[in-house]
Amino acid sequence: MIKVNGISKSFKVAKRSTGVGHALKGLFHREYTTVEALRDISFSIEPGEIVGYIGPNGAGKSTTIKVMSGILVPDRGSCSIMGYTPWMERVPYVKNIGVVFGQRSQLWWDVPVMDSFQLLRDIYKVPEPEYRANLTLLIETLDLNEIVNTPVRQLSLGQRMRCEIAASLLHSPQILFLDEPTIGLDAVSKIAVRHFIQTINQEKGVTVILTTHDMNDIEALAKRIILIGKGSLLYDGNLQALRSRFGTRKTITADYRETDIPLDIPGVSVLSWSTERAVLSVDTEQVMISDVLTQLSRQVELLDVTIDTQPIEDIIVQLYKEYQIS
Amino acid sequence: MKLYFQYLVILFKSQVQYRTSFWLLTLGQFFIPFSIFAGLYFLFERFGQIKDWNFYEVALCFAVIHMAFAISECFARGFDAFSSLVVAGDFDRLLVRPRSTVVQVLGSKFEFTRFGRLVQSIIVLVFAVSNLPIEWTVLKGVALFLMIASGVFIFTGIYMLAATLCFWTIQGLEVANIFTDGGREMAQYPLNIYHKWVSRFFTFVIPFGCVNYFPLLYILGKTSANSDLYVLTPLAGFIFILPCLLVWQFGVRRYRSTGS
Amino acid sequence: MKMYISVFKLRLYNGLQYRSAALAGIATQFFWGFIIIMVFEAFYSQLANTPPISLTQLITYIWLQQSFLAFIMLWFRDNELFQLITTGNIAYELCRPSEIYGFWYAKLLAQRLASAMLRSLPILIVAFFLPQPYRLSLPPDPSTLLLFSITLILGLFVLVSISMLIYISVFVTMSPVGSLLMFGVIGEFFAGMVIPIPLMPVWLQHIANLLPFHLAADFPFRVYSGHIPKEEALTGIITQFIWLAALVGLGSFAMRRALRRVVVQGG
Fold first, then answer.
1. What is the mean pLDDT of residues C115-131?
2. How distant is the Cα of A25 from the closest Cα of chain C, in angstroms?
3. How far apart are CA A228 and CA A89, in angstroms?
């Protein structure tokens, strides 16, 4: 469905410096630096996949999305999406995709949401029956009934984002690009948005590519992640595999009857210790959890034990560190 | 075309949401050119005429150019205000929609308050025409209509060129005012009152002369006999927009390769 | 004073950053100047009786208008101040240890000065070297130049105190559109921006002279070209002082009233 092959893109950026002297100099001469936004990026995505596209700020996520949605022309490389080259056949191609830029609105600010929907119907030339059917489905699953007749400026951020997503699905696209769809949303709205993405993926088979900084989005939605940093592709694969590769540390929190003898378990680092509670970090590749528990119960009188997997956030931070991109 | 109309409706709904400011601005658009027209009147009161043109003849010229300006500011405002679209990054949004960029940019903004200016110029037009001893013929009516339409095309073309400039820099756009506001100011008077270099520039490069001079001569019967060809001169304005469209397409291509 | 200088520096620096904007502005003003001069040239070419102002004086008048545009335009606005008022954030301003009227006055003054610095000098210099008859002529003698400088600066003060009234009116109307419009259209017409005041019909000149708007633009420019004799210029300066005192008095009184309301309403 999507085949990206060796895409590269660089930008020229004007150097700006402070100080009146530099400003005066800038009147006559300006220096440029070249930033390589994308270096030789390749991947392919099958129909029906949900792919999380992650990386720190400025890694090249947005540039990739812009190339794939036909906005930008890359310097080198090829890209074939549903048989189209996005930047060559813009108009026929973009009929098949939906794009949500989380930080910008595609709805008309001062009029009811419904008016925006109708205008989008005309922009995309959606046949009336198809439009009706899509609208009914979207209103129902996104719970928009109460808000479609409200002007956009009166909506909360979460309500607006639901409408944004609905707006980009009115023409039944087969691919949906979501650029930070949950940015700035409260917890309830985030869950609603995630749930909806899952629904349309499963029921309508829409392929979803989403960029985000919220790892909970990734965990809830994407089985596969693509990680880029400084314009290069660093990791492409299963989220589970990533977890077993990097997420080998577990945290054990133990409560026990008061004692002032410090714990001493080989292969375990103590994150915190008090006379009643200790938090331990265990690398499961070196020590078995069961061994640690055995040791623990020998040294103290255990009251309660919890074992936590390392949060995905930490894994990503670790990844960034490993590739020295943060 | 249907789509353009849809854009019109939705943006009209938006603008009337802010009723007070909408009416105030419309009123302002009525009074600003009114004060300029008053100035014109006072000048003629003192000087009588300007190079063989009397007050009513110049008033007709004034009305035509202001009408063209008002219409283009209302309906081609999207190009006039294009820099804000680029700065906000909303041009990307237009590129992921399956329609031509020209229609979408045109549809991105309308300035309905310019109706104030339009009404003012219609009043001046009626005032001028009723005071001029013109023997109206169908051809003269056509000429008048073409003058206005041609003016709209020229202003729109200039907006388009200025908008294209936004792909390179959003500074210095003020220079486009020379040709829009400046062109309007200049074209209030018939072209032949100016020096040769001005009138040549505004005939052959930006064809305002084909709006406010040649057809005006025809309507006022100031041409030598057998001059029906003058009726067609406004077509130059329609031709003017073609290179502007090409430049625009070139700008969009450049935007898509630099993404700046 | 220090704050005033830093606003001035910031503006100047900002202006320098936008080099093409400044160049474009200058080009635009030149074009305008030429167009207006050519129109008057055409009008003057067929004149039977002596005009109330000579073409040379008129050309000088127009170049001065173009170069000191930042000193005379009423629509030259500071959206930050408008927002401060309409959003109610004015409450924060009240916490500052300076009187608001003076503070805003200084800010607006600094902005206009900085913009004029960037635009007027280049325009003036080029206009001095234009071929005749378009050249900006020098004032007849040094004392005229001195009088011009005094009247120009006083005129700027008068103008800023008028524009302060626009800002204060926003406390009541909550939208700058109406006041800007009214002051913009009427003020500019009676400042001689549409047609120079000496070319207006006599009855209209009387009205213009009764209003303060001509003091910022028309009056200093005519002093420069010698169209207004020196004795008259001196009385004009007294008029400027009177208007300035009246406008500042009215402004600070209205401002205190408006602020009291803000405080009572709790911003």
1. 83
2. 10
3. 27
CATH code for the part of the protein at A248-309 = 3.30.70.250
Q: Map residue A242 onto helix, strand or coil.
A: helix
Domain membership of residue B4 (yes or no) is no
Choose among C251, C263, C265, C258: nearest CA to C104. Answer: C251
This prediction's pTM: 0.84
Tell whether B44 is covered by a domain.
yes
Q: Which residues of C touch B (CB under 8 A)?
A: 18-21, 23-25, 27-28, 31-32, 34-36, 38-39, 42-47, 51, 175, 177-178, 181, 184-185, 188-189, 194-195, 199-201, 204
Which sequence spans correspond to the domains of chain A?
Answer: 2-243, 248-309
C88-96 CB contacts, 8 Å cutoff, 24+ apart: C88/C262, C88/C267, C89/C267, C90/C259, C90/C262, C90/C267, C91/C262, C91/C266, C91/C267, C94/C259, C94/C262, C94/C263
Nearest CA in chain A to C20: A27
The amino acid at residue A116 is S
Greatest Cα pair distance, chain A, in angstroms, is: 77
Mean local confidence (pLDDT), C114-126: 82
Domain count, chain B: 1
Burial of B21 (0-12, 13-18, 19+ CB in 10 A): middle
List the subunits that have 3+ CB pairs under 8 angstroms with C.
A, B
Q: How confident is the model at residue C150 (pLDDT cuts 50, 70, 90)?
A: very high
- Domain assignment present for residue B61? The answer is yes
The per-residue pLDDT for range C3-28, each reduced to its tens digit, is 667 777 777 776 666 667 777 778 88
Residue B95: list chain A partners with CB under 8 A.
69-71, 90, 94
Q: What is the CATH number of domain A2-243?
A: 3.40.50.300
pLDDT band at C267 (very low <50, low <70, confident <90, very high): very low
Interface with B, mutate which of A67, A76, A90, A103 (most B CBs under 10 A): A90
Do B93 and A104 lie within an 8 Å CB cutoff?
Answer: yes
Domains of chain C: total:
1
- Domain limits for position B195: 19-258
pLDDT means per 10 residues in chain A (326 residues)?
Answer: 91 64 57 84 93 86 90 92 91 92 84 91 92 92 89 88 91 92 87 90 92 85 88 86 77 87 81 86 83 86 85 75 68
Residue C148 structural domain: 2-265
| A-chain residue closest to B101, CA distance | A91
Check CB contact of B22 with chain A, cutoff 8 Å.
no
Q: Is residue B206 part of a domain?
A: yes
Instruction: Enter the ipTM.
Output: 0.86
